[in-house]
Amino acid sequence: MAYSQILYDVTDGICTITLNRPDKLNAFTGTMGDEIYDAFSVANADPVVKAIILTGAGTTFCAGVDLPALADPKEGKRIVETPLLSKFPLENYSNPKPTICALNGAAFGIGITMTLSFDIRIAEEGAKMAVPFTKLGMLPGLASGYLLPRLVGRGRALDLLLSARSFSAAEALQMGLVERVVPVGTALTVAKALAASMVKCEPFILAGVKEMVNFSSDSTIAEAVENEARLLAEYRAIKMKGLAK
What we know:
Blueprint: E1 6-11, E2 14-19, H1 30-45, E3 51-56, E4 60-62, H2 67-71, H3 73-81, H4 83-86, H5 88-93, E5 99-103, E6 106-108, H6 110-113, E7 120-124, E8 128-130, H7 144-152, H8 154-163, E9 166-168, H9 169-175, E10 180-182, H10 187-199, H11 203-216, H12 221-244
Parallel strand pairs: 2-3, 3-5, 4-6, 5-7, 6-8, 7-10
Antiparallel strand pairs: 1-2, 8-9
Helix pairs in contact: 1-3, 7-8, 11-12
């Protein structure tokens, strides 16, 4: 697929996908959704790619859905039907490759919900955020009802979603919606440095850590221990196979 609303780059094992409508504050369209989904599919299938970063061009990560595009019958239909909404959350949550979101500025609506399935979110100081779906007469998507409470807790999730209030990057850090807050203009640099440390590790180990954490969040401690034993046995088998060659 040729991309018109995102940029795609692979350097030193790190794939960087950039929302690229800076003149529209990277407002989300169906075209953008299709391109993001395709780009992640390409990156996941590429053995060269060891980690994936999503960021935005300009000074805003994503201003939310493009309302004029939503009002257009053709593009509105594309927004609703893009696999980014229906397939991406589960696929990205269970992605064996590390995923990092570098929020290089404000993030609203889908600019927040599209990040919830990522492993790590890095925001810049002073960035404003909101999930104003109730004010727009919309329901949040991208598995928000599952993912947001697991990040910030049920009460905070309902506070953000029902009030539709804006909040700062500092508050997002305090509630657990982002993992780091960094100086303005440095989110992507920090994300790339973090990804660079990850790509030095064995892919199976990275994938195993992610699977352990994901599995354990919805299991008993006994089930978690059993799952860890299975993963360790698989890892030992891979290492022995490598030594036998």
